[in-house]
Amino acid sequence: MLEAGAIWGFTSTTMASLMFFWSMYKQFAPYHVRLYLERYFYKYLNKWFGEDMKSVHIIFPEYTGEGLTKSRAFDEIRNYLSTRSTATARRLKANESENSKSVVLSLDDNEDIVDVFQDVKVVWSLSLVNKENQSVSKEGRHLTMSFDNQYRDMITKTYLDHVLREGKEIGLKNRERKLYTNNSSTDFSSWRDGRWSNVPFNHPATFETLAMDHEKKEEIKKDLIKFSNGKDYYRKVAKPWKRGYLLFGPPGTGKSTMISAMANFLEYDVYDLELTTVRNNSELQKLMLDTKGKSIVVIEDIDCSLDLTGQGKKKDEEDEDEEDIEEKKKEAEKLKKDRVLKESNVTLSGLLNAIDGLWSACSDEKIIVFTTNFVDNLDPALIRRGRMDRHIEMSYCRFEGFKVLAKNYLDIESHDLYGEIKRLLEETDMSPADVAETLMPKSDEEDADICIKRLVKTLKEEKEKARKLAEEEEKNKAEKKEKKEKIEEEEKEKAKK
Ligand SMILES: Nc1ncnc2c1ncn2[C@@H]1O[C@H](COP(=O)(O)OP(=O)(O)OP(=O)(O)O)[C@@H](O)[C@H]1O
Ligand SMILES: [Mg+2]
């Protein structure tokens, strides 16, 4: 009886002491001491149960080369493991990386995680490299992959391929999307940041908020989905995985908005290429090579970037002899290919080469978009199918577009004046930007009714303005014709004399 009491007393005292030490250890032991002890505890536990005996270990360091470049494989594996570790790891690290949309949970230092692939167990562990061993001051880590030797072939080929591919996909999905602009080649201070500078891309435009014909919108969305899923197709038909869009239409019809909607729809980055600051063709080539996959490269107002003087329709063209115009056009056509850009030495042929030369096969999917207000001024070579695969006209606001804008700006789907607005929009050319501006409430007192009435009033005024302008033009034309006929008659009279 006494013995049982003594045993009980000893056990409970030991348990109490152990619990006391455990809570002291948890509270006061420094974090790195705990990591060290726990790491060795698990390691030896594995060894005692004989799991480690036939293992192969492969190390993936965080920094490669001289320790200055971050290893892409390391990041991709970490992305892949983040999905596994969120569910199973005991200790996670929350990273607020500047390249990701939100906090990303990943494996903590000195933590292990088990992944199972085709019934084979793979153990991953993340360790901090001793500072003494490092040639650079950066804190380095490495990931170790351990597995049974008998699966060496399958793991090093199939499994690793799968991990890197998935990790890359996850990285692209989690990344914060960027809007890149090319640095001016004369701005030396920006050189160290590379050829492109970037800001987070937060434009809120979507296809749902875009005012345009519903069918046209759906068609574009389908085309984009087909393109982004077309990796195998493009490989099969031996074409680089890229697609060109030409957006044309009057100012304020939503060309730039459409680009943002496309980028948001596909979750792509946007590279806004300012051609006038590019020095020459080779710099343009380098800029293009420096763009990543899953991106849209945009050249806005391409007609203004290219020096097309002599090719486009001039205002006084009408006054010139028709023969003269034809002659000038032919001459311009000949010179076109080697024409230089207004403020740089980029030529048209350089631009053509840059958008679909050999480089275009060097990276993953890419969309190229040109926008212009004057499609007729563009060189046919620049916009031919295959280079600009789809030509999309952004037109003045019609009733269907108006309904989208009214829903966006006023949150209404019908009104007594809709019939009148429909008729007026058919007869008047008003850009979606102008319609949107008119519909926008200017103060808290303004409700949907006031805004709709203002639109009707503005449309009527615009219609009247357009009518007067047309009348004036007609009058001017008639006057010119009369003048010309008079001169011709006078010349005939002179000739008779
Ligand atoms: N189709 C549209 N749908 C929704 N909003 C539009 C549309 N078009 C224009 N807007 C509104 O008008 C503003 C100007 O449009 P945007 O800059 O896209 O026109 P743009 O065609 O690129 O003009 P520009 O030729 O002058 O560059 C946008 O911020 C947007 O609010
Ligand atoms: Mg624009």
From TrEMBL:
Pfam families reported in the protein's UniProt record: AAA (PF00004), AAA_assoc (PF14363), AAA_lid_At3g28540 (PF25568)
Catalysed transformations (reactions): ATP + H2O = ADP + phosphate + H(+)
Lineage top rank: taxon: Eukaryota
Keyword terms, alphabetized: ATP-binding, Coiled coil, Hydrolase, Magnesium, Nucleotide-binding
Domain AAA+ ATPase: 241-398
InterPro entries, alphabetized: AAA+_ATPase, AAA_N_dom, At3g28540-like_C, ATPase_AAA_core, Mitochondrial_chaperone_BCS1, P-loop_NTPase
Cofactor(s) listed in the protein's UniProt record: Mg(2+)
SMART domains: AAA (SM00382)
Coiled-coil annotated residue ranges, if any: 315-345
Residues covered by region (Disordered): 465-497
Family indicated by similarity: Belongs to the AAA ATPase family. BCS1 subfamily.
Protein name in UniProt: AAA-ATPase At3g28540-like
Species this chain originates from: Camelina sativa
